[in-house]
Amino acid sequence: MRFSVLASGSTGNSIYVENDNHAFIVDAGLSGKKMEQLFTKIDRNMKQLSGILVTHEHSDHIKGIGVLARKYNVPVYANAKTWQAMDGLVGDIPLEQRFEFEMETVKHFGSLAIESFAVSHDAADPMFYSFHENGRKLVVITDTGYVSDRMKGIIRGADSFVFESNHDVNMLQMGRYPWSIKRRILSDVGHVSNEDAAIAMSEVVFEKPTNIYLAHLSKDNNMKELARMSVTQTLQSCGIIAGEYVHLVDTDAEEPTKLVMV
Ligand SMILES: [Zn+2]
Ligand SMILES: [Zn+2]
To answer: Where does the secretion signal sit in this chain (predicted)?
Structure first.
């Protein structure tokens, strides 16, 4: 199993996962054209896609879905409530390309198992995915206001995980956003801060090599260096030294991370 975080941040999200027989993306939150450019950068072709797995209906996750589904005949997977919420946002997607992927279920594609699980976010029925093959595990979680014990259980033992490190609380509080938006981001159905992300990470990593991708950074209320520093410090205060067996990897709003084995 190999993967790349194609793009991540408040401006658009998509993650690519493949094995020898299948290729999926989790969300397509950038325009069709930008998505094609990202695929070129990892030397892959969208014609090979087995499916698009949708997490929730916010535009930074679904912007390119309609265009790509129609142009490349890609099957799209989402739960029933998300399908309903996406109606009118993604244009027509032919019935034969619409598939239901219900919450807390597993689908098997040959040797690859994909599992869906709930997050706490202000969308119709938001969920994220974990990928399993030959004892290796990749988990993707962003867009959640807090990290529940259930979510921690899912991440535990992952070889790689993509995890939200959305904002610096001070930057958000001092920033120019109206109070209603600040309150939404900080709420239990908003986004996870750098510190809260690190605390959750410290509770799920074991002494084995783990790659943690810091994802969904806010354009206005975070910076790569700040997220990395803040996560590193909080991990350290919990007795975990980044660089020993836990490796932090930056993601970018426009540049894919290297396509690597999970
Ligand atoms: Zn998002
Ligand atoms: Zn969202």
So the answer is: none
Q: What percent of the chain has pLDDT over 70?
A: 100
Task: Quick: pLDDT tens for 204-234.
Answer: 997 789 999 999 999 999 999 999 999 999 9
Taking the centre of ligand 2 as the mean of its atom positions, its distance from the CA of residue 207, in whole angstroms, is 32
CA atoms lying within 13 Å on the CB side of residue 82: 28
CATH of the domain at 112: 3.60.15.10
Do 62 and 25 contact (CB within 8 A), yes or no? no
**pLDDT, tens only, 10-29:** 899 999 999 999 999 999 99
d(CA 131, CA 17): 8
DSSP 110-169: TTEEEEEEE---SSSS-EEEEEEETTEEEEEE-S-SS--HHHHHHHTT-SEEEEE--B-H
Task: Give residues whose Cβ lies within 5 Å of ion ligand 2.
Answer: 58, 143
Q: Whose atoms come closest to the Cα of 26: which ligand?
A: 1
Nearest ligand (C-alpha, residue 190): 2
Ligand nearest to the backbone CA of 145: 2
Q: Count up the domains in the chain and report the number.
A: 1
CA-to-CA dists, residue 40 to 35, 37, 160, angstroms: 9, 5, 23
- pLDDT at position 208, please? 87
- Domain that residue 217 falls in: 2-261
Average pLDDT over residues 72-98: 96
pLDDT of residue 206: 79
pLDDT surpassing 80 at residue 165: yes
Ligand nearest to the CA of 60: 1
